Amino acid sequence: xxxxxxxxxxxxxxxxxxxxxxxxxxxxxxxxxxxxxxxxxxxxxxxxxxxxxxxxxxxxxxxxxxxxxxxxxxxxxxxxxxxxxxxxxxxxxxx
Length: 95
Known about the structure:
InterPro entries: DUF4287
Low-confidence stretches: none
Distance between the termini: 21 Å
Helix content: 40-55%
Region (Disordered): 70-95
Protein name: DUF4287 domain-containing protein
Number of helices: 4
Radius of gyration: 13 Å
Organism: Planobispora takensis
Number of strands: 0
């Protein structure tokens, strides 16, 4: 599953876009460099029923923003994406 597909699945499951999760995380201080992934995973599991893989996708955008490593772009692997920039504003708003 591509990185973008993880984010799209999270939106389907929760009704929240990645950008909305970033804002919620910021409100809780989870965007701080010192915040450990386990704290965010626990929050996402408890409040939204997300598993570890989906939580890790959100942790990436919370902590690092929408850019992903170019090695995940194109190719034929199961985790390939079309772009090195993830869309965070919801599936309905994607150009």
